[in-house]
Design brief:
Elements: H1 5-27, H2 31-43, H3 49-69, H4 76-99, H5 118-140, H6 149-166, H7 168-184
C-alpha cells in the first residue's frame, strides 16, 4: 500500500502556494493595487494610518515568503505555520468587518469586489485546516513523494482548490441567480 502522507503534504503545499501567491500578486499588480490595499487597511480594518503602509508591506512580504516556502522542502513546515498565522489574522479581520457592517470590498486576498461576508470566512476556514494538515503531514511524513502521476494530481488538485476558494465570492454570485430562479419556480 502506498503511503498517502507525502501526497497530502504536496497537495496542501499547492493550496497554500497558489492561494498566497495569487493574493500577493493581486496586492502588487500595480501602484494603485498596493495603495488600495494600504487605504483598505487604514479604513476597513482600522489599522492606524501611520502603520498602514508598513502593515501592507509586511502582509505582502509574508504572503510572498509563505508561497515561496512551499517550494523549499526545508521551509515547508514553517511556511505552513506562517500561513496559519496569516489566515487567522485575515479571519479575525473579516469577522470584525462583518460585525461592524463594513460595506467596502474585502482586500484580504487582493482586489475583492464584494464586502466581507460568509464566503470570505468560509474561504479562510477551509484554508486554515489545509495549512494545518500540511504542517502536520510535513512534520511527521517521510519527505516528498516520488515524482509520479499521483504527485502531479495532488499538485493540480491543490492548485484548483486554491483558485476555487479564492474566487468563492464570485462563484457564489454567479450561482445566486440560479438559486433564486429555482426557488421561484412553481
Amino acid at each position: 500500500m502506498t503511503d498517502v502522507m507525502p501526497y497530502l503534504t504536496i497537495g496542501c503545499q499547492a493550496v497554500v502556494a497558489v492561494a498566497f501567491a495569487r493574493s500577493c500578486a493581486a496586492k502588487v499588480a500595480g501602484r494603485d493595487a498596493f495603495a488600495d490595499f494600504r487605504r483598505w487597511l487604514s479604513g476597513a480594518v482600522r489599522v492606524p494610518a501611520a502603520l498602514a503602509g508598513p502593515a501592507a508591506a509586511g502582509a505582502v512580504i509574508a504572503e510572498a515568503a509563505t508561497a515561496a516556502a512551499m517550494l523549499v522542502p526545508s521551509l515547508v513546515p514553517i511556511g505552513f505555520l506562517v500561513a496559519m498565522l496569516l489566515l487567522a489574522v485575515f479571519t479575525v479581520a473579516v469577522v470584525s468587518m462583518i460585525r461592524r457592517r463594513v460595506r467596502v470590498p474585502c482586500r484580504c486576498f487582493g482586489a475583492g469586489s464584494r464586502p466581507p461576508g460568509v464566503p470570505h470566512v468560509v474561504r479562510n476556514v477551509v484554508l486554515l485546516p489545509a495549512a494545518g494538515g500540511g504542517a502536520v503531514t510535513a512534520l511527521i511524513g517521510d519527505g516528498p513523494p516520488p515524482a509520479d502521476a499521483a504527485a502531479a494530481l495532488a499538485v493540480l488538485a491543490g492548485a484548483a482548490a486554491a483558485l476555487l476558494l479564492i474566487d468563492l465570492e464570485e462563484i457564489i454570485e454567479i450561482l445566486r441567480p440560479l438559486a433564486v430562479t429555482s426557488e421561484e419556480a412553481p
